[in-house]
Amino acid sequence: MNGFDQYLKKHSKNGEAIKEDYASSDLLRTICTRAYNRAVDDEKKLNRHYEAFSSQTYGETSYERLRSIIEEIEITESDFFVDLGSGVGQLVVQMAGGSKVKRACGIEIADLPSDFAKKLEIEFKGMMKWFGRKYRPFTIHHGDFLDEKFRSLIVNEATIIFINNYAFQADLESKIKSKLLSELKHGTRIISTKPYAPANKKNQITQRTLGDLSSILDVVEFKKIANPCSWTSNDVPYYLHVINRVKLAKFFEEKNDPALRLERSGTPSSNSSSFSREQSRVPSRNGTSNHKNDMVQRLEENGIKL
C-alpha cells in the first residue's frame, strides 16, 4: 500500500474525505506526486522532447527545495508568484497548495509540457477537492514569457519570480535581464539557479557598473538542502535576488554631495540621506515592519541593507 492509499484509508470514512482547511506538507507532497504521475503518463517522452544543451533543457526543482524556499522568504497573502518556464507546472501547484501566496502563475513555451500541465491542473484540483483542501488561485499559460502580452503580469504584478535558468543560453539570459528584470519594481524577489549578480556581496555601484543589473540587485544564496533538483545528484545552489532601487538613488545623492561620499564606507548618520533605514528596507507585504527573519539577517550580515 503506497503513501496515498495509506492516507486515504486513515482519513476517509465511507468514501468521504474528512474536511479540513489547507493540506499539511506531507499530504500536499503526496497529492502533488500523485497528480504528477497521473498527468505525466510518459516521462520518457517528456525528457526526449527537450533538446540537449539548449535553453529548453528540462529539469525539475524538488518538492523539498521549494518548500524550504517558501519557509525562508516568508510569503504573504499579497504576494503573486510567477514561474518563468514552468514546465509541467508542478511548482505552480505546490505554491498554490503550500503557501499563503495570493495567486500563482506559470508560463511555458514548449507544447508537450504545456499539454501535461493542463492534465496536472485537472488532477491536482480533483485531488484537493476530494480531500476537502483549499488552495490559492493559479493559472498556467502556454506561451513565451518574453511576449508583450505577459509583460504587465511579470513587470507590474509579480512580487516573486522563479527562473530555473541553470541551462539558459546567453542570448536568452540577456533578453530576460534587459526586457524583464531591469524593469521590475522595487522589492520584487527573484529566485534562480544562476545568480544575476555576485551573491553575498554589497555589489557597490560605480560609474562602470551603473548600467548593469547588479546596481539594483541584492543577492544571497538560499540554505543548501540535499537533492534540490532532478537533473543532477550534485549540489545546485539557488539564489534570492531583491530589486533594490534605493541604493541607486543613494549613489546619485552621494555623487552630488561630497560629504555623503565620505560616509560610503561607514555608517550614514540619521539625517545624511532622505532615504532612511526604514525607507530602504523592502516593505513587508502588509505594509508594516516585520521582525527580522533568517533571510533578512543573512542579507544584513553580508552588508546588504533592505
TrEMBL record:
Belongs to the class I-like SAM-binding methyltransferase superfamily. DOT1 family. Residues 265-284 have a biased composition (Low complexity). InterPro entries: DOT1_dom, H3-K79_meTrfase, SAM-dependent_MTases_sf. In contrast to other lysine histone methyltransferases, it does not contain a SET domain, suggesting the existence of another mechanism for methylation of lysine residues of histones. Residues 291-306 have a biased composition (Basic and acidic residues). This is Histone-lysine N-methyltransferase, H3 lysine-79 specific. It comes from Panagrolaimus davidi. Residues 1-256 form the DOT1 domain. GO terms for biological process: DNA damage checkpoint signaling; DNA repair; methylation. Signal peptide: none annotated. Keywords: Chromatin regulator, Methyltransferase, Nucleus, S-adenosyl-L-methionine, Transferase. Its EC number is 2.1.1.360. It holds the Pfam family DOT1. GO terms for cellular component: histone methyltransferase complex. Its main location: nucleus. The lineage of its organism: Eukaryota, Metazoa, Ecdysozoa, Nematoda, Chromadorea. It is found in: Nucleus. Residues 261-306 are annotated as: Disordered. Histone methyltransferase that specifically trimethylates histone H3 to form H3K79me3. This methylation is required for telomere silencing and for the pachytene checkpoint during the meiotic cell cycle by allowing the recruitment of RAD9 to double strand breaks. Nucleosomes are preferred as substrate compared to free histone. The keyword S-adenosyl-L-methionine applies. It catalyses: L-lysyl(79)-[histone H3] + 3 S-adenosyl-L-methionine = N(6),N(6),N(6)-trimethyl-L-lysyl(79)-[histone H3] + 3 S-adenosyl-L-homocysteine + 3 H(+). GO terms for molecular function: histone H3K79 trimethyltransferase activity. It is an enzyme of class 2 (transferase). The keyword Hydrolase does not apply.
